[in-house]
Model the fold of this input.
Amino acid sequence: MHKSRMVIHGAKILVLSAVLALAVSCGITLPGTGERSQLYVLTPNSAFPDDLLKVDWQLLVEQTTSPSGLNSQRIAVAYSPIELDYFARANWTDRAPEMVLRLLVENFENSGSIIAVGRDSIGLRSNIVLKTELREFQAEYDKAEASSGATGSGKAPNIHVRISAKLVKMPQRIIVASRTFEQIVPAKRNSMESIVVAFDEALGETLTEIVVWTLTEGENIVGEAKK
Done:
């Protein structure tokens, strides 16, 4: 009986070896055997204007929305205004809208100008609600560079970040201010590391502008309500 089990076990190993050899010879990549994706993370900003307004009201930041093509961990790349693709084996550590939301809340906290700020999931009773939509968040190559758009060769891309922001007055729930923020930052080299650094710079500048605008406009809104 023991010998029979050994024969069966040996047969299984031979079959598995044959499958792997066939996959390699046919150029097939089996799940778990290909190159691993590199994960990238962006950082919150900690530098703000010295004259940044300090406020005593409460801000709730709703979940950032985005088109389905950007609602992904994959790092988006575009070769024309009507094409959207993704870099191979390069991902964010979270879905792009979730990453933007986290960094936006951290930026408000790092500003030191507002203590009562939080995501809508914590149920904060706020004076103002900030709604954001991520509309552009991709590396953009010229169409002429499409054939050499792979990292490591060709011209470096521009990083395009655009976020629409709206302020909602509570408890009336009416939109009282809106603005679109946009940054385009050229990557220094056509490498994944340089591209991510440019993403970090473009998003950092955009979120800093949103923080400054929100505090300024929000103070005006709350101040009017107190009169």
The mean pLDDT is 85.
